[in-house]
Write a sequence for this structure.
């Protein structure tokens, strides 16, 4: 099978940085999974003894705590500081930005709208910085009953699709006198998405490699499905099904921002052999 | 001919206010036409001796100067003040708003984008308040080569279509980190436009009454043409052509924000007789 890789795919700046931080902190513990890729988390545990803990109460005070790339809530940071943990912050700088915007804008009297998934750790972190009203939505409909003031600031989860973000903004503009729009979708997301869009329209089958709990991977999968109906989301080589490739000429491959190269290489190799 | 009037049409708050101001200043002179309706300007001259002057040099210092509803440039206001003219400001408060936003935002370091017609007096006035870069555009294409900074504030000419404003905003969001959107399209414009849209889809012929140099009237005409292919822009009863009404059942009528009721009544009467 012939393989074509997307022009931009895989690890983004924030993920690379977070992994470097974790590798430089052997024996540490990350508060929540460092990135949304179970296999890479497993590698960090095996090779660097970097463990994962989901609950502050269970953290042992003799270990460095690494803040995950998606960031954590303001109250959790304050708790860690209050308990004198040694903290290493691996929050992606592109995530720190909406946190700061959220804090500053709500202090300035703006109501905050976050375009994102309320259950995603990044969004939980960002919204925790608001001191006033904050609304987390995935579509304009969810704002119909929102009691928003006349001045609204909007940010986006870093890994979302811009065209969906615009829909939220469009709705707000029609309703509010001032809408302060901060496009916090990160460049890596944008680059990976536009490359995936282009490639998926020119192949017979498309693989999106990434964690099934990864927001940006799911967005890529969504985009690829529009370009190529035979698109599949795979986490590892074990997810591949040779039946998918029957009578197909070219297989396009992209990968989420939290997918390490070693996983991608294995899959590319395997597909080439089919 | 059966006539149906749009739910909202004609004189807006700013125009009513400006006419009241002019009527209360008999013998005054307006700097540029008070509103974009030649017949109403003529009436103010005949009934209240309110004259029009286009050039500060030609103003006689013994007369009150009425600032037109579209506003004038900051430098013209300063000149009038410097020459001690008695000034009566009939600028629509909905126009004062984008002037103030433009001044404040550019002082705060934002580049300004105005969605509007660079030759319209309102836009000339608004842009004159910018202390930094300002770009006046009617479509996103015009921004392709604009050297805009990373923080942009956007306002709209008060009489423009919201859907076109959104296109400018959408383009800017994709390019810039912060876009501060001030929807300065006035409510009257919005109400008149949405009523025109609704009515034009349910009639056989549609008349839009207003000055041919009136921005909001032209927008209404544009909207009506989409709803009803037999739409006509008329300034007075003299523009009517009975041929238009042949084999038509219902005639819809709307009017721009600067169209006085007495002109509308004459036309309605005439159409009913056809």
């Amino acid at each position: 099978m012939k393989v074509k890789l997307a022009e931009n795919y895989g690890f983004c700046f924030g993920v690379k940085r977070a992994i470097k931080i974790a590798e430089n902190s052997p024996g540490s513990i990350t508060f929540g999974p460092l990135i949304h890729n179970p296999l890479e988390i497993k590698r960090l545990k095996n090779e660097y003894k970097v463990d994962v803990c989901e609950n502050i109460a269970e953290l042992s005070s003799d270990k460095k705590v690494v803040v995950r790339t998606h960031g954590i809530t303001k109250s959790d940071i304050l708790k860690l500081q209050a308990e004198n943990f040694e903290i290493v912050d691996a929050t992606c700088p592109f995530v720190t930005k909406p946190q700061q915007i959220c804090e500053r804008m709500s202090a300035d009297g703006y109501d905050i709208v976050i375009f994102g998934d309320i259950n995603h750790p990044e969004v939980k972190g960002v919204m925790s910085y608001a001191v006033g009203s904050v609304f987390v939505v995935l579509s304009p409909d969810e704002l119909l009953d929102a009691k928003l003031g006349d001045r609204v600031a909007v940010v986006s989860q870093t890994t979302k699709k811009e065209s969906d973000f615009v829909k939220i903004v469009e709705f707000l503009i029609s309703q509010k006198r001032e809408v302060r729009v901060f496009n916090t979708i990160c460049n890596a997301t944008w680059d990976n998405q536009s490359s995936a869009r282009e490639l998926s329209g020119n192949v017979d089958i498309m693989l999106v490699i990434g964690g099934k709990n990864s927001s940006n991977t799911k967005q890529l999968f969504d985009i690829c499905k529009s370009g190529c109906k035979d698109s599949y989301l795979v986490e590892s080589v074990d997810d591949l099904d040779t039946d998918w490739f029957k009578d197909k000429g070219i297989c396009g491959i992209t990968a989420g921002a939290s997918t390490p190269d070693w996983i991608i290489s294995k899959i590319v190799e395997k597909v080439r052999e089919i």
Observations:
- The mean pLDDT of chain A is 94.
- The longest helix of chain A spans residues 93-107.
- The interface with chain B takes residues 162, 165-166, 169-170, 173-174, 176-183 of chain A (CB under 8 Å).
- Chain A has three domains: 2-9+187-273, 13-90, 94-181.
